[in-house]
Amino acid sequence: MENNLPTNTSINLFESYRKISQNKYFDLPERNIALKKHYTNGNYDKVSKLRVEVGDDLKECKKLWDIFKKEESVFDLWKFRYPFHKYYLCKPYFLTIYIDSDPVGLLPLSYDPTVNGYRWFGTSWPEDNKFFVKDPIFVPLLMYLAPYPVALYAIEADEKNKLPDFTPLEIDDSKYILDLTRHLSFADYLNTLKKKKRYNFKRDIKKFKSLQTITEINNSSRFDEMIVIGKERFKIKGDISEWEENPQSIEMSRELMLDNPDYITRTVSAIIGNELAGSDMISIYKGKYYCLGGAYNTKSFSGIGNYMNYLEIEDALNMGCKVIDFLQIDYGWKHKWFTEVPLYKYERL
C-alpha cells in the first residue's frame, strides 16, 4: 500500500532533488528514479522551490478550480460537476502544487466511497477531463503524488502529450460526436449514411410519425416515468441500471436538469398515446449539445432509439448547436452512426 498525503497537509517537495528519494511519500523506486531523471534533466530550476498542499475544504477547492478551469466543456463547470460529488457523498482531495503562493498545478480529486478509491472531482461520470497546470512540466509530478488507489477516466486525447513515457496513459472507452457544421439539416446528415442505414433510419422515423408521436420538451412531470423505464430496460438485458444500483443518482439526475444560468438544461421526450416511449436529458453549453442519458421503452416501441436520435439532431440544429456529444461508451450502436473520439485513462489500483 502506498502512502497518501493526508488532507490539510503542506510540505516542501525539494530542498534539493535528493529529497525525492528521502520523502516518505515517494516510496516506489522505479518511478522515483524516472521522476528524478525527468526533473534533473534541465527542469530542476522549475521544481526546486515547489510546495504541495492537499485540501478538502469545498469553498477553497472551488477557488482553485476556478483558477484552472478551461470553460470549454459543460464538464469544466463546477456547478455541473458538483451534483455528482454531492449525491455520491464524496470527500474532496485537491492536491495543489505551488511556487511560493502561486498555484501552478492542481489535481482535483475526490474520494468516492462507492468505489473505495479516488476519482476526478465529480466521480467517474464527467468527461473531457484535463490536467490543470500552468506548465506541462508539472503533470508527471501531480500523477506521482496522486493518492492510491486512483483511477482517472475520460481524459482528452491532447492531454496525452503532457505525460512522459514513464507515466503512460491507457486507451479508455471512446466518446462519439456528430459535427453539425457539416449538416444544414437532418436530411443532409441522412445523405452521409450508407443506403441500408439511411433506409432503416427513415423507416423508423416514418413508423413513429404514423403513430402520431408527440414530442415534449422540458416536461419535468415525465422524470419519474423515465426512471422506471430505465430500470426496467436494464433488467430486461440482465443488467442493473445506475439508478437501481445507486438510488442517490436519481436525485443527482433531477438536480442536473434544474434551470441553471451557466448552461441550458433540456429534456426531449417522445409520447405515444400518453405513454412515454423515450426520454433524454440534455445540456447545452457553448454550442455543444450533450446527450446525458435517459431511457427508452424498446420492449413496446422497437426503433425508438433511432427516432430519439432524429428528434435530438433536429432539436440541436434548431438550437443553433455545432456539435452533438453522445458521450462515452459505444453500447454497441454509436459507432454505426457517429464519429469516434478517443479518450484516455490513468489507473493505479
Which strand-content bin applies to the residues?
A: 25-35%
In round numbers, the mean pLDDT is 89
Report low-confidence residues grouped into runs of 5 or more.
Answer: 15-30
Radius of gyration: 23 Å
Largest sheet: spatial strand order = 10-11-12-13-14-9-15
The biggest sheet, with number of strands, parallel, antiparallel or mixed sense and barrel status, is:
7 strands, mixed
The span between the termini is 10 Å
Structural class designation: alpha+beta
| Percentage of residues assigned to helices | 25-40%
Counting H and I runs of at least 4 residues, what is the number of helices?
Answer: 12
When the domains are counted, the total is: 2
Tell the overall outline: elongated
Q: Topology as H/E string?
A: EHHHEHHEEEEHEEEHHEHHHEEEHEEE
The number of E-state strands comes to 16
Protein name: BioF2-like acetyltransferase domain-containing protein
Domain BioF2-like acetyltransferase: 195-334
InterPro entries: Acyl_CoA_acyltransferase, BioF2-like_GNAT_dom
Organism: Candidatus Woesebacteria bacterium GW2011_GWB1_38_8
